[in-house]
Amino acid sequence: MTEDSEIFDQAASAPADERIARALRDRILEGHLPPGTQLRDSRLSAEFAVARHTLRGALRRLEHEGLIVYPMHKSAAVKTLTADDVHEIYRVRRALELGAIENSSAAPAEAFEALEATVYAAESAVSQEAWNHVGTASLRFHQAIVGMFGSVSIDQFFSGVLAQLRLAFAVMKDEAQWQTPWVPRDREICGLIRSGNRAGAAALTRQYLDDSERGVVDVVRANEMNQRRPVRRRRANAPEGGQ
Amino acid sequence: MTEDSEIFDQAASAPADERIARALRDRILEGHLPPGTQLRDSRLSAEFAVARHTLRGALRRLEHEGLIVYPMHKSAAVKTLTADDVHEIYRVRRALELGAIENSSAAPAEAFEALEATVYAAESAVSQEAWNHVGTASLRFHQAIVGMFGSVSIDQFFSGVLAQLRLAFAVMKDEAQWQTPWVPRDREICGLIRSGNRAGAAALTRQYLDDSERGVVDVVRANEMNQRRPVRRRRANAPEGGQ
DNA sequence: GCCGTTGCATTGTGGAACGATCTAAGCTAA
DNA sequence: TTAGCTTAGATCGTTCCACAATGCAACGGC
């Protein structure tokens, strides 16, 4: 309810560049704009019916969030994760998630409730076979882990990092089957944290992150192989594949 | 040398947004633009001889870094830290600095060398009585602590948080005398980390952060008292005090 | 087949303009 | 006098247009 009204407010009164950034972000994270898709500002400004300046502002936002790259004098493009990017993401995950678990004795009760709620949501998504929500729900659990720090800036930062991780999910053929096995492990970690077994939870999480990183790197590497042949741009006024 | 050329390159070829953002950031962090200073885009665009669009881009950057506030339909202004802001900053510092210390066994040797170098730089600043550099040098030590994670994104994030902290330093009357006492404590923490005494280093750092937070909150609170009477804007074409 | 040249698309930035909105001054009325 | 309303000006948010700078791809010479 409060969340609905908040979304509505932002959609209505937010500045145009933020609205457009949100729209593009959604398209990217839903996988409708696969990594590598070129985002030409003239085309997008026409599509969203805003001036080029405004659209560029939205692209700058997404660039800062790490969802797109925006080189000088070149088109913006949806970021294609490299293996190094994935390693960096998991460096952050290890630092923050393990740190938050070590520190979980200082977390308030609400934070533990939030953990439970997110795991339950992920399990619900699995049982309802809402496969495309499973990955997001699982990430929300890990967001809740880091949320135990109680710091809004860390939450925002980590949220951006996980958004980048979803770039990798977006190119998976069968995301559902890849995501599902992690949920029981989330449940187990959640239980250990709530029971106060910090060392156990940390050990399990470390293993979880190692396994997950390996898996994601494999996907990214496989994709690198596929995209060895560079997609060449159309000349003149050809209608451009990627939407 | 390499750093010089890098700075030169950026100053020459970087987009105008970034150049101006850098200039304003420097002015703010040096204390030339005290918190609360209004940053009117029309005036600044004239001053920097760029279009308003370009300048607004720079302001958006600084807004994202948390150095200025930029409300809808109101002037941007240098951020005035509240006590809550300070608490948030120290939540981040506790999470990352203590986490990095706990994790320091996994850090490479270079990271320990970097620690040593930054502490030495701070001590040099003290002995050379370069008072206005002491605070920056000390913060660089803490940046180096977090650097032990080996994650560039965490480094960037933490760098932004410490920049916000410098907003509080900027309003201090005698920053030098405030900063100096912390350097010996930095030295002690550095020694404990390098000797592998993680628990000791963590305990000392925790106490350090508690003391530091108290001090900064006092400064911020005192400033809040002073600024109870709002500075009213000039009408018409009065030349505006700030900068 | 390789390499420089050239032309076009696209980006980077500047400038002017207009409506929207906020702030402050001025005015009216109790 | 003072509270409240009105109004004018300043500033922001956005758009449109223009032009130089840059990069990319096709073209042509060797």
TrEMBL record, chains A, B:
CDD domains, A to Z: WHTH_GntR
Signal peptide (from-to): none
Annotated HTH gntR-type domain residues: 14-81
InterPro entries documented for this protein: GntR_C, TF_FadR/GntR_C, Tscrpt_reg_HTH_GntR, WH-like_DNA-bd_sf, WH_DNA-bd_sf
Pfam families to which the protein is assigned, alphabetical: FCD (PF07729), GntR (PF00392)
Record's keyword annotation contains Transcription regulation: yes
SMART domains: FCD, HTH_GNTR
Keyword field: DNA-binding, Transcription, Transcription regulation
PROSITE patterns attached to this UniProt entry: HTH_GNTR (PS50949)
The keyword Transcription regulation appears for this protein: yes
Protein name in the entry: GntR family transcriptional regulator
